[in-house]
Amino acid sequence: MVANRPQQTFYRSGDLFQKMNILITGGAGYIGSVATELCIAAGHKVVVFDNLSQGHREAVHPDAVLVEGDLADTAAIDATFVNHPVDAVMHFASRTLVGESMQQPFLYLGENVTNGLNLLQSTVRHGVKRFILSSTANLFDEPERMPITEEERIVPGSPYGESKYLLERVLSWLDRTKSLRYAALRYFNAAGATAERGEDHTPESHLIPLVLEVAQGKRDKITVFGNDYPTRDGSCVRDYIHIADLAQAHVLALEALDGGSRIYNLGNGQGFTVLEVIETARQITGHPIPAEIGVQRPGDPPTLVAGSDKIRAELGWQPKFPNLREIVESAWNWHQQHPHGYGK
Ligand SMILES: NC(=O)c1ccc[n+]([C@@H]2O[C@H](COP(=O)([O-])OP(=O)(O)OC[C@H]3O[C@@H](n4cnc5c(N)ncnc54)[C@H](O)[C@@H]3O)[C@@H](O)[C@H]2O)c1
After folding, report:
1. If 0-12 CB within 10 Å is exposed, 13-18 middle and 19+ buried, where does residue 220 land?
2. pLDDT classification of 343: cutoffs 50, 70, 90
3. CA separation (Å) from 84 to 30, 39, 87, 160?
4. d(CA 93, CA 8)
């Protein structure tokens, strides 16, 4: 493990470490494109593998190589490893919608898992020993303690969460049998934007971009699902982590992998209520953002906040943008620069 590593200067750790060739699946998507940006800023070289089903060509960093391909296509994955040097893989490409996974479980328990296995088989076959998985807070559907630490009991909340957990289990076996060193990063709610890259999902399901769509006049109002939870204002509390902080955790985890595999919960460590997010967006945008109160959604717990002490202690990770205001402001700046999203 890395207990003796000195505390790192935030966002400059890449200077201290070996430069790597990184294959980033889903590097045209929201989080993968920002991870690409930060890996390149840290001096690494990046090949993005993406089928552009959700991602955007314009989101891919100009210094990265884009391979358009689908993870169902094992020959295309293999060709990528043959045609490009790869020292490490970051796997973001996935179906990502919890609700859709409840309707169409095979898309997730089948496709997400099979695609991950395809990628892992090529990774192992080509002798690559470092792998980072985008996992999720949806592993913790019935948390007994808050904040949620890595010791919390795993209870996937959906086929989506289960698909991530299955890949975590596969990784633990590949560590034992093939010496593949991995990090599983269980993200809470990614939010915000860098100057050049932001959130453009179709359909959009995340609170902050939905609230900003009201401010942009694309929606009439935002629905708050429940104001009778046992929280400070009755609405749900969630942990929003700035996308650059999330991406930076990948750079740090990559550099630490030679010291052994690791699993981290990754959030800001602070919870904000839905009503606080809306009020913050009102202040930043100057728009009244009408909100209506709807009923609670089944399966929405009152509070979900990450305990991220482990990654802070082991990797020296610290969120640089922990305040809700900075997170919403960065998203708003990006949406103002890109009123119709990428390339539209
Ligand atoms: N956004 C969040 O708050 C959040 C929270 C927890 C976990 N995650 C996980 O993080 C990862 C990235 O999420 P995101 O919000 O950036 O999603 P995203 O949809 O913006 O990005 C996913 C990318 O993968 C690509 N892709 C999908 N299926 C593919 C396939 N079969 N072959 C090749 N490319 C494919 C898409 O085109 C897209 O560019 C996902 O694995 C998601 O489950 C996200």
Report:
1. exposed
2. confident
3. 23, 17, 10, 31
4. 29
Expressed in angstroms and rounded, the spacing between residue 95 Cα and the centre of ligand 1 is: 6
Using the mean position of ligand 1's atoms as its centre, give its distance from the Cα of residue 112 in Å: 10
| Residue 264 annotated among the catalytic residues of the structure | no
For residue 262, give the 3-state DSSP assignment: strand
What pTM did the predictor assign? 0.94
145: exposed, middle or buried (C-beta count within 10 Å: 0-12, 13-18, 19+)?
exposed
The binding-site residues of ligand 1, defined as CB within 6 angstroms of any ligand atom, are 25-26, 28-32, 50-55, 70-72, 92-94, 96, 115, 134, 136, 187, 189-190, 201
What does the buried/exposed string (b/e) look like for 304-317 if buried means 16 or more CB atoms within 10 Å of the residue's CB? bbbbbebbeebbbb
pLDDT band, very low/low/confident/very high, at 10 (cuts 50, 70, 90): very low
The single-letter code of the amino acid at 288 is P
Phi/psi zone of residue 267: left (φ > 0), alpha (ψ -120 to 50 degrees), beta? beta
Q: What is the pLDDT of residues 278-289, one digit of tens each?
A: 999 999 999 999
| Ligand 1 binding pocket mutation candidate from 24, 30, 47, 68 (most atoms within 8 A of CB) | 30
| C-alpha 108 to ligand 1 mean position (Å) | 12
3-state secondary structure of 50: strand
Tokens read off for 62 = 């100009």
- With residue 89 as reference, give the H or E element that holds it: strand 88-91
Catalytic residue among 11, 30, 108, 160: 160
Tokens of 301: 């717990």
83-125 pLDDT, tens digit per residue, is 999 999 999 999 999 999 999 999 999 999 999 999 999 999 9
Residue with tokens 């860098």: 194
Counting every residue written for the chain, the total comes to 344
Q: Output the CA 69–ligand 1 centroid distance in Å.
A: 14
- Residue 318: both structure tokens together: 């610290």
